[in-house]
Structures are given as structure tokens and as C-alpha cells.
Amino acid sequence: MHELLLYGQVPASRHDQVLKILAGLAAMQPRRVLQRCILYKPQREPEEPGLNVRRGGTQNVAVKQAKPTAAPALYYTKLVQKLSEADFGTGDGLETQSGQHLSANIADGEEPKWSMRWEDIPDTGDRGVSIRFTNSTDLLSGDPHAQMIAAGPNRFVTEYYVEGYRFVLGNVVIFLHRILHEPGVRSVEETPKTHLPSFASLKLLDLSGAYILEAKVRVQDFKDATVLESGVNELKEFQKQMRGCVELSLPDRLSLDTRVKYKPPHAAAVSAQNRPR
């Protein structure tokens, strides 16, 4: 799945106004969204370029060395949990029943609450919108944290919360949101919390209280030029409709970089040797 994206910023003072404008434009009431995002980092190192060429070689067989290539990138991945106000703690030391453990188990007919999401770095945006490849998998059973640890293997990094409102206008998914986090230093940082804090205790990541307006079109068949062009045009039409209210623009692709910064051990050693004494 590919996503076509544009972003804008809405000051806290204009939140209610923009919310009403979006509701009128989309002809629907805003849909409340609460999410917990749990970030993971791969523990393994990327395979050294050319290592597969040297494997299995002998002293009697001449192996033609391939040209050096860049090491394959590793990416952060995240778990996304759909929440409601009732899932949060009450702030009186009593935990909600829904926060007793991490479980993706659902009954027949229920909507999945957990999903595993991977996002590529966006392309250069020569079409006027940001385009990136994403992969999202719903989890229907088991412990989502244990699955993430085993899949990489991965290591838990941090967790944060997203609250906002979602609209749908044709094929454009509009998400007006901001990021919250739990303040203070946690004593255990190897696993995500099994008991959610109270919603009132969460603090804004951006202290100004500004909201992010994300406009997104999902494209299944990226190689179909007609479908891609239609998605781009629909997103640009929404951008034109919002002109004068919220300026939607192409974000810096490196600000959405999900790659893990990795420095090979031999490169670090060479850097240390060349350092002036």
C-alpha cells in the first residue's frame, strides 16, 4: 500500500473553527480517534555488503568480488493500539480492567484493536505530494509486544499517544491530531506499560498545543499510472479547497525518515584511527 500525503499545522486557538470547517466540507461529524503508538528498534545489525559472496568460498576457488554496495537499511516499526477514554486509568491508583495486560485477542465480529505498522522513507515528492510505501498488519490474537520482540528481533524504545478527529472526503482521509506523552522518567523501560495512565495526566509533546492536519490518499496499485494520478489530483483538490484556512504542503522527507542510523564497527574503527592526535 502506498500513501499520498500532505501536512499542515493548526494553532490550538483555531482548532474548533477548523474542526467545523472540515465537518462541513466532508458532510460528516468528526470521528474521535485515540491511539497508543509503541515504537520498536531492530536489534540485529544490517548484513555487511558482499558477505553473501564470501560465504562458502574456499582457498582453491577464485571468487569474483562484487562491487561494494550500501548496507541494507533497517527501519523502526510500531504497534498501534486503538483506545477509548474507558481504556485509560482513573488517576486514583485503580487500573481499568482493559489495561490489565497486553492482548490482541478479539471475539468473532469484533474490530481488531492492535496493528503492526511499517513505514518507508517518503520519496522526493516530484508529483507535489509526499509518497511512501507502508505495510499494516492487524493482530487478532496473542501478546502484541511478544510478537514484535520475536519478529525482528526488536527492542522496545518508547511509547506515546495520539488524540484527534478523523474525516473522510471522497478518497481523502483527513486526520486533525496532536501527540501526547506521559511525563517523568520511567523506572523500567524494557517493555510498554501494561496499565495505562489517566488521560488527564498526559502532557502535550508540542507545548504550544498546535494540531497536525494530515491529508492522506491510499493507493493499492502504485504501478497503475491512472490510479496514481487520480489520487494525486484528488489530494491537490483538497489542498486547494483548504487554501486560506490551512496551508497544506509537502513535508521535509527527512523529517519522516524511519530508518535506523547504523554505523558499521569497521567504519568506526577507521574513523578513530584517522582522528588527529
UniProtKB/TrEMBL annotation:
<keyword id="KW-0010">Activator</keyword>
<dbReference type="GO" id="GO:0006357">
    <property type="term" value="P:regulation of transcription by RNA polymerase II"/>
</dbReference>
<protein>
    <recommendedName>
        <fullName>Mediator of RNA polymerase II transcription subunit 18</fullName>
    </recommendedName>
</protein>
<keyword id="KW-0805">Transcription regulation</keyword>
<dbReference type="InterPro" id="IPR019095">
    <property type="entry name" value="Mediator_Med18"/>
</dbReference>
<dbReference type="GO" id="GO:0016592">
    <property type="term" value="C:mediator complex"/>
</dbReference>
<dbReference type="Pfam" id="PF09637">
    <property type="entry name" value="Med18"/>
</dbReference>
<keyword id="KW-0539">Nucleus</keyword>
<comment type="function">
    <text>Component of the Mediator complex, a coactivator involved in the regulated transcription of nearly all RNA polymerase II-dependent genes. Mediator functions as a bridge to convey information from gene-specific regulatory proteins to the basal RNA polymerase II transcription machinery. Mediator is recruited to promoters by direct interactions with regulatory proteins and serves as a scaffold for the assembly of a functional preinitiation complex with RNA polymerase II and the general transcription factors.</text>
</comment>
<comment type="similarity">
    <text>Belongs to the Mediator complex subunit 18 family.</text>
</comment>
<dbReference type="GO" id="GO:0070847">
    <property type="term" value="C:core mediator complex"/>
</dbReference>
<comment type="subunit">
    <text>Component of the Mediator complex.</text>
</comment>
<keyword id="KW-0804">Transcription</keyword>
<dbReference type="GO" id="GO:0006369">
    <property type="term" value="P:termination of RNA polymerase II transcription"/>
</dbReference>
<dbReference type="GO" id="GO:0003712">
    <property type="term" value="F:transcription coregulator activity"/>
</dbReference>
